[in-house]
Amino acid sequence: MSTPGAPKPPRATLVEGDIRSALVSLALPMSLGIVFLIALNLVDTYYVGQLGTDELAAISFTFPVIMLVMSATMGLGVGTTSAIARAIGGGDERKIRRLTTHALILGVLVVALLSGLGLVTQRLLFASLGAEGPILALVVEYMTIWFLGAAFLVIPMMGSGAIRATGDAKTPMYIMMVAAIVNGLLDPLLIFGLGPVPALGLRGAALATLAARLLTFVGALWVLGKRLNMIEMHTPKLAELRESWRSILSVGVPAALTNMLAPIATGVMTALIATHGNAAVAAWGVGSRLEGLVLIAPMALSAALTPFVGQNWGALRRDRTAEALRQSRRFVLLWGAGAWLFLITLGDFVASAFSDDPEVHEVLRLFFWVIPVTYGAHALVSVVSATFNAIDRAIRSTLLSATRSLLLAIPLALVGSYLADTLGIFIGVALATAITAVIANLWAGELYDPADHPDEDADEGVEPAAAPRASQSMRGVSPGRCALIDGLVAGLCELDQLRVAKTRGNAIGFFGPGGHEIGHVHRGGQLDLCFPPAIMDQLAREGVVEHHRHIDDACWVTHELDGEDDLPPALALLRLGYQLARLHALVDLGAELSLDEALRDLTVSEALRAEIEALVDSWSPRTPRAG
Questions:
Q1: Where are the alpha helices (DSSP H) in 227-346?
Q2: CA distance 572 to 586
Q3: What is the spatial distance between Cα 482 and Cα 493, in angstroms, rounded to a whole number?
Q4: CA 460 vs CA 222, 226, 447, 512, 584: distances in Å
Q5: Using an 8 Å Cβ cutoff, are 201 and 51 in contact?
Q6: Mind listing the pLDDT tens digit for each residue in 124-135?
Q7: Beta-bridge partners for 519
Q8: Domain segments of the chain: what residues?
Q9: pLDDT at 260 over 60
Q10: Is residue 2 scored above 50 in pLDDT?
Q11: Half-sphere exposure of 567 toward its Cβ, with a 13 Å CA cutoff?
């Protein structure tokens, strides 16, 4: 149960208002959050470097393992943001609390697994990476503290994901800022000692990081529990945990794999670059780090899309999802072009800031001319991947990452290395990025148009009354199915704002006021409908619909149209979807709502009506409602 008298969980704040302003308000704090995270790691490295070469080498050995854990944790954070944002968009208060609470429980289990495995295997693990003797002892000293404090990394990461799902990106940024400042103050104190505080060396660096992470842990839990009331104290049922974890992990696991692929591919590319000499490796390292800095803004925008698209997808605002994706595509392509022009113009100056070796300068000059050409394409892949994560199609993001990193970049770089040395490697990487961006853009094509891409000859759609033979526009439909589909269209002729159009996938789509897609029927008789999560779950509980046969947790349900007996419930579901879209359009106009009028011709249970009332209230509490 949640705390009595506590505020309600946050309502969807990203489903209305200016889209560009919303994305900027999310992306700017996320950019600063990334900067503070980088600063925290750089401060550690700087002070440890003052201890000596062995300590610096020891902390360098920890980077691959820490990055692997961070990749998995960030993936879980993305899954948390995506699942909770969709619940917020759908106005399902119970699901918001349940998902948040269960995400934190999942975090505890992940921590137990990570800490246990890490502590047991760390000596063998780091020895296999090449650490030995005194350096291995230093690594174990540092990582023992790190693994024991893993809870203060994993749980705040998932908690911050839940906070971002509400549309609040500033609070996680402030939490990270305080952590970076505290880490910066404690590092010299604990590493070198002062007065009664002993010099702890590398252990001091680990303890400083642990203290900073502890602050993020406390801050995230306080915000979620007290300010947002998104945590409920109860003993969860196993079925509830399974459902929530499936929602989180269906995005979190692919997102984690996506994050892990990049460092793996980078390691392979570094080994390939190394065959061309130390200067090439140095230039590649500088270029890669500059790439991370140059792409902070597009990467922050990609991260901002997860809560924005998640809320709007949950609220059935496909139009806002499409517009956000179009604006983001335009921005990242322009940013990429600007970054390329900047680097080729000031490349010599930038190179001299990192190295005075003429050979390194020459390789960097090649890097700046070739790789940044595709920075816009690189960012576009991230934008599309973030959108797929937000709508619970994260496996597509993983496939895009695998395509770029493993299937294209490595083979093309190998061929390029053979044909044109270092320049050939750079060209191979750039080609891989460009090809993947084209694939991503085509794959996301259905999301750019909120009307699900009606065919060109059906752009204007057809009114139900004028389409008694709508099935004629579909291929391969049996006569029996034709009669059912035509009966479905004809049965909705009294809905004056309903639009019917043939869509991609050889289906007939139904679109309500404001361009909201209500559903579509396939030639096999599968009627797929889109409802807010609370309505979807209630209909499923009442046995009226089944969850979508292919897409889990994405607001879609299926009703099979096999015979005449299936036609009345199919019509009732479409009318319900139409009335919900109509009510949402009235909310946007600030008009008075009448639930009695909207539901007059529908047979709905008391439980379903209560869910509809709660949904309408969540859309706009200020809108007057009659009945």
A1: 238-274, 278-294, 296-314, 318-345
A2: 21
A3: 17
A4: 51, 50, 19, 14, 22
A5: yes
A6: 988 887 888 888
A7: 510, 529
A8: 36-55+95-236, 257-450, 460-626
A9: yes
A10: no
A11: 16
Q: Which residues 6+ apart lie within 8 Å of 346 measured at CB?
A: none
In contact, 295 and 379? CB cutoff 8 Å: yes
Asked if residue 312 lies in contact with residue 321, where contact means CB atoms within 8 angstroms, the answer is yes
For residue range 392-403, list pLDDT tens digits in order: 888 999 999 999
Report the relative pairing of strands 526-530 and 546-547 from DSSP bridges: unpaired
Residue 323 tokens, joined: 């517009």
Residue 46 has a pLDDT of 80
Half-sphere exposure of 209 (CA within 13 A, CB side): 28
Q: pLDDT-derived band of residue 6, with 50, 70 and 90 as boundaries? A: low
| Rounded Cα gap, residues 47 and 203, in angstroms | 12
Task: Give the helix ranges, DSSP H, for 149-237.
Answer: 151-165, 170-192, 202-222
Q: Show Cβ contacts of residue 392 under 8 Å, excluding neighbours closer than 6 positions.
A: 82, 83, 86, 247, 250, 251, 551, 552, 553, 554
For residue 551, with 0-12 CB atoms within 10 Å meaning exposed, 13-18 middle and 19 or more buried, which class applies?
middle
Quote the pTM value.
Answer: 0.72
Q: Are 146 and 114 in contact (CB under 8 A)?
A: no
> What are the pLDDT digits (tens) for 50-73?
888 788 778 777 877 887 888 888
Which phi and psi (to 5°) does residue 361 adopt? -60, -45
Distance CA 273, CA 252 (A): 32
Question: Residue 304: is its pLDDT beyond 80?
Answer: yes
Average pLDDT over residues 211-228: 91
Q: How many CB atoms are closer than 10 A to CB 473?
A: 18
Three-class SS of residue 522? Answer: strand
Query: Where do we find the tokens 């230093």?
Result: 138
